[in-house]
Amino acid sequence: MRKKKHEDHVNHEAWAIPYADLMTLLLAFFVVMYAVSVVNEGKYRVMSESIIEAFNGNNKQIQPVQTNSATAPAPVPAKRSTSTTPPSLRPRLAVALPSQSLPPQMTQGSLTTREAAQENLQRIQDEVQQALQPLIDRSLVVVRRTQSWLEIEIRTDILFPSGVAKLSPDADTTLRSVAGILAPFPNPLRVEGYTDDKPINTAVFPSNWELSAARAASVARLFADNGVDPNRMGIMGWGQYRPAADNANEEGRNRNRRVLVVVMGDQQGPARFYSDADRAEPAMAEAAPAAIGPNARAAHEIAPPAGHSPLPAAIPAVAVPAVPTGSLPVAAKLRTVQIAPAENG
To answer: Residue 230 has what DSSP assignment?
Structure first.
């Protein structure tokens, strides 16, 4: 009888060996990754302290390399960074850059530039109101505050005689006190001049535009002479075309004859084209960009060029944007007028 051939059994567990090898390799891989990712706390602390000391500029000595020579070099003291900033500008830079050391009155932790500027606005408002309270009580000075700027409105009755741009003796005292308040702060500011609708036509002032711009320049020049940085200032002359009241009566004309000192909240703040924004009509505000034109600069950008005298004897041409046609009796286009200096006497 023929012997039956025995069939080999199929090994169904052959996959376990390569699978075990794969798991072993994966385990080894993750162990290596974990070992690489673990940070040595001691080394990390030393490295972080070294970086902090390098940026803080601590006055430490550089340790020389140890050699076998008997004449090893002496330790070299690290030089502290010296600032070439003039002392008069250091308080302004401290407020404008909150990461630097702030003066005691501004120490509030880590203030942003905008927060510091808003803090400055509030302090300026408080100090101006305290210094000019007698004039405020007589309605000769008005202080207004918005989120983006501060307005100090001064009636020209206490600043200039009629028809001239030379400051009166009483105005000198008032404006010097305002300049003393504004000088320590870095906020940009603009001086705006306004008149009533009474026409003027002289050799010095052919129109109210020239008169208003010359008066604004006189105030800005006094500010510059009393410590306010000229690079922060600009002037504008609106003439009779931004009335705060009706020119039909004497009281309204007195209100319209004014000088406005506008202190901006910060250098990146919104452009402010109109002095009395709370009284401006929406249509006038919407038409302002079209009336000014593409080549005109924003009001807060009008400032003296670097390297030049901030307020020269002959005041340069001042761009005065006109209002929309129909609102006032002027064409809605950019007008350029030549401003002459105010005569002495």
So the answer is: G
